[in-house]
Amino acid sequence: MTSHGTFGDDPFGRRAEQVARFFGTPRYILGQSVMVVLWIAVNSIAVAYRWDPYPFILLNLAFSTQAAYAAPLILLAQTRQADRDKAHGDRVDKRHTALEQALKTETDKLVTLLQSNTELTQQDKQLTEEVAKLTKEIHTLLSQRGTAA
Question: 31-68: string of b/e by CB count within 10 Å (b at 16+)?
Fold first, then answer.
């Protein structure tokens, strides 16, 4: 299924969406947590390697930069997903409309057949009553002839 939404289906949009989806994975969260612990440990313990001493301003800057890029990527991914959801909903609505129309057509056919069947049943009843009436008349005539002879 291709997306033709606000951001199109360009490579940047697809890649941005992949990155935004990665931000929510346990793998990313675990990896980031390990990096933060290592960063703080190295800058707190190894005096010779302190490039960002307490209060870890460089680490805060890295998080701020990451957040500045992550937020728009996440919003882009949400917008693209909303576009896909809308397109899917539109297809489902069209399918339901088509099915409803087909069902209405078939229902109308069944109603027509039922009306025809009802008319035929009434005609059959009338004919049966006429046959019964004629049969009685024939019996009456035959019984009158039998008594007259």
Answer: eeeeeeeebeeebeeeeeeeebeeebeeeeeeeeeeee
